[in-house]
Amino acid sequence: MKIAILPGDGIGHEIVAEAVKVLNALNLPLEMNWADVGGTAYEKHGHPLPEATLELAKSSDAILFGAVGDWKYDVLERHLRPEQAILGLRKALGLYANFRPAICYKELVNASSLKPELIAGLDILLIRELTGDIYFGTPRGRRTAEDGHFPGTEEAFDTMRYSRPEIERIAHTAFQAAQKRGKRLTSVDKNNVLETSQLWKDVMVEVAQQYPDVALDHMLVDNAAMQLVKAPKKFDVVVTGNMFGDILSDEAAMLTGSIGMLPSASLNDRNQGLYEPSHGSAPDIAGKGIANPLATILSAAMMLRFSLNQPEAADRIEAAVQKVLEQGLRTADILSEGTTKVSTVEMGDAVVAAL
Amino acid sequence: MKIAILPGDGIGHEIVAEAVKVLNALNLPLEMNWADVGGTAYEKHGHPLPEATLELAKSSDAILFGAVGDWKYDVLERHLRPEQAILGLRKALGLYANFRPAICYKELVNASSLKPELIAGLDILLIRELTGDIYFGTPRGRRTAEDGHFPGTEEAFDTMRYSRPEIERIAHTAFQAAQKRGKRLTSVDKNNVLETSQLWKDVMVEVAQQYPDVALDHMLVDNAAMQLVKAPKKFDVVVTGNMFGDILSDEAAMLTGSIGMLPSASLNDRNQGLYEPSHGSAPDIAGKGIANPLATILSAAMMLRFSLNQPEAADRIEAAVQKVLEQGLRTADILSEGTTKVSTVEMGDAVVAAL
Ligand SMILES: CC(C)[C@H](C(=O)O)[C@@H](O)C(=O)O
Ligand SMILES: CC(C)[C@H](C(=O)O)[C@@H](O)C(=O)O
């Protein structure tokens, strides 16, 4: 079982180190290979996703990814910026199915902006299509407008597009995920305005025929953004396109108030996957030893379950994380009265001890 | 001062009737003309935005709009669905500047999903560009994919586009609005992925030169969706494109928990405007006399201020609404312990009495 370890920038190194520590403690036959990615890779090799990193990722069963990005790279041309690495990996490996759980741990209910009764027990799964939509659609660029409100002026443009098979495969992913959970699937689109969304909705309805045990409903993206705030627990599984998924998965994550706890998985059709925390590279706290490594540790658990076929090991990690929370151990981001503040390394050690 | 009154569908008639009652009580020389729009217009005239309605709107100084839509029209072809009326009016009148205040009245703090300390005193203004972006961009449609992941299959596509002058004019609108408020403007885009967003950001930075008294910052749309949940009061004025604005303005509105209180204005460069509540047509409660008319009444106040140059009359309405809240009068949607439940008509009467 070959794992590519890509710590990236900012807190990436610190949090990935703890996840690796936890993986090592499991005594599984894991081959781990490190590589640079993001701003770190740009500085060392002139590109955020060097050829060697991409080759390593392609030839691995799974990628454990930290985080990339820093304000200081904002001045670079877009194709050299750190986040291009993550877009490049998604595209090159065809990682079209992004799993973004939004879970509120009962020990952390108070971290949420929401009233406890609205958030306690939250457990929703957002599935975001990750290789299509306006993220990768061509044509795109700048040109002189030929029509529109101001013909003859400079304009920029992007193309949103989805083909039927692209929607079908993520629909199957979502229906199958719903079958394993509460059997309810909400498909989010903007079919009252977008052609792409109308096809999205049509295909969802068609694929639903094959999953009579799952209740499918449809929600407009603006309404979904509202219902997540109003009554997040009403959702079970949500499926949506790349652009809407970017917005809604972050909104859903922040509802929990503990984004430092939330893992993610991005899979292709061979179950090769990239696993990363839902949060960013937090350059402001990098190197201070205070970042929360639990989202990355839980991402490693998802990796064991989805790409490496080690569900028991995944369960063990998740149980260990639950145990350290019960022990009252907290990094600074989730600290509250009556709990014990620990560093990044201490949190990793505690998870290993709890395994 | 010529006003087109377009009640539309669902609760539209009930709530607009109360706003008209309030306008009449002001004894201003207002010429009001009624017309059908939305599903109601489709049923009577075969089109959601009949020619006569459009002509009336064009020849009026302002439009007071209720709401459109009902599930039963979902079966219609897209161009005949009720919401096409609102898109058609925006386009035909060039209503590019959409003002969406998100205000949390102190009497209604408990209606919010958020903890009181995070929401009490919220007063942010979201400015959404309303006639460009992927809403109106061409080309769009269905075709056989020539490239992408599955060449040769059916695909749907839409075009996101913004020209420089389109971004400039909404930037000026936003900077000027910020000058009249807290002098802070947050521009939201997705420049790490989209060409359109990169031009958006570039133009915002350029226009900022003309407003040295306003502090401009930039936020990615996914982060904005998070920060609205985490710390909404940190925002003052937010400006964004049509698509992101659709999502974020509804998210921001729902944070208050009292979307029945929130008005909106959509203006063109001649200050002709369409005024409507931020909420929808609520067909489930239509005809029951329980809908909250205050968002529509407050929309009428915005109309007096922005399109009819009657700021004192606008102030009077807003003060009257504040007074009925202080009197403890509440429609069902904002009812809480110790307050008095009133009907739609009783609420309108109370505002008139408080004028
Ligand atoms: C870094 C950025 C390109 C990326 C995205 O928009 O997909 C990020 O926001 C995410 O959600 O993983
Ligand atoms: C009805 C719909 C087309 C419209 C939009 O998406 O703009 C609505 O959601 C709004 O925000 O006014």
UniProtKB/TrEMBL annotation, chains A, B:
Pathway: Amino-acid biosynthesis; L-leucine biosynthesis; L-leucine from 3-methyl-2-oxobutanoate: step 3/4. Transmembrane segments: none annotated. Binds 1 Mg(2+) or Mn(2+) ion per subunit. Residues 2-351 form the Isopropylmalate dehydrogenase-like domain. Its EC number is 1.1.1.85. Keywords: Amino-acid biosynthesis, Branched-chain amino acid biosynthesis, Cytoplasm, Leucine biosynthesis, Magnesium, Manganese, Metal-binding, NAD, Oxidoreductase. Its cofactor is Mn(2+); Mg(2+). Pfam families: Iso_dh. Belongs to the isocitrate and isopropylmalate dehydrogenases family. LeuB type 1 subfamily. This is 3-isopropylmalate dehydrogenase. It comes from Brachymonas denitrificans DSM 15123.
